Amino acid sequence: MIRRYRALSDRHKTLVQTIAVVLVMGSLGFASVPLYDWFCRVTGYGGTTSVADGRGVEVLDQTITVRFDASLEAGMPWRFRPMQREMKVRIGEVALAFYEAENPTDRPVAGSASYNVTPFAAGGFFTKIDCFCFESQVLQPGERAEMPVTFYVDPAIVRDRDGKFVRQITLSYTFHTIDLPETAALAPAGGVATTTN
After folding, report:
1. CA angle 25, 29, 32 (to 5 degrees)
2. What is the CA radius of gyration of the chain?
3. Rounded-to-integer distance, Cα 67 and Cα 58, Å
4. What is the CATH number of the domain that holds 122?
5. Pairing, β 109-118 against β 86-90
6. CA distance 165 to 163
7. What value does the mean pLDDT take over residues 75-102?
8. Domain that holds residue 12
9. Based on the structure, what is the number of domains in the chain?
10. Do 142 and 190 fall within a single domain?
11. Could you tell me what percent of the chain has a pLDDT over 70?
12. What is the pLDDT of residues 38-68, one digit of tens each?
């Protein structure tokens, strides 16, 4: 009788432990994307940039070259390009760059831009103040928009073990098609819109 009770108790204990492991693993799996995103934003890992409110930082005499890259996911019908290929900026200086997007189709198309910075060592030091990538964009048929990004390179890069060797940073954006919002017929893109016919 005691042996039977212990066997039943051991089975019950094993079942409870198994369920606990499944619940913990499921929770970690569910939380992995937001946790990874938070980790990348805090550390700059994977070329994720920082975001700032525009308050001034120290401007150094050293310059760094920032290159701009644009691409589209498969099936995204827009045309998308940087309006400047590169610029030299002083480290700590606030700079403004523009990308241009055009919808050559006969229907409204909504898009969202993902971005990264290479080399990865520069990701945590490339700081955006304002960017078209912070919200989704809608372009009407034939509409073209200039989309700004305001940024600076944090002066802390010159004191970083890996960052101090960076001489060139590439900022890359990829536009992805997203579902059209209900207000798409009235909502122009977040940039400076121009219409082409």
Report:
1. 130
2. 24
3. 22
4. 2.60.370.10
5. unpaired
6. 5
7. 97
8. 2-43
9. 2
10. yes
11. 70
12. 455 454 444 444 554 455 578 999 999 999 9
* Helices and strands counted in the chain (H then E): 1, 11
Distance, CA of 30 to chain centre: 20
pLDDT at res. 197: 45
- Determine how many CB atoms are found less than 10 A away from the CB of residue 141: 12
**99, pLDDT greater than 90:** yes
Q: Per-residue pLDDT averaged across 10-21, rounded?
A: 73
* CA–CA gap between residue 114 and residue 184 (Å, rounded): 20
Residue position matching structure tokens 């009770």: 5
Same domain for 56 and 35: no
Phi, psi of 80 (to 5 degrees): -150, 130
Entry pTM: 0.67
Residue 180 and residue 109 share a domain: yes
State the pLDDT at residue 109. 97
Cis peptide before 155 (omega within 30 of 0): no
Residue 186 DSSP one-character state: T
Which structure tokens are listed for 183?
Answer: 């207000």
Q: Is the pLDDT of residue 32 over 50?
A: no
Question: What ranges in 67-116 are assigned the alpha helix state H?
Answer: none
Res 48: pLDDT: 46
Separation of alpha carbons 145 and 179, rounded Å: 19
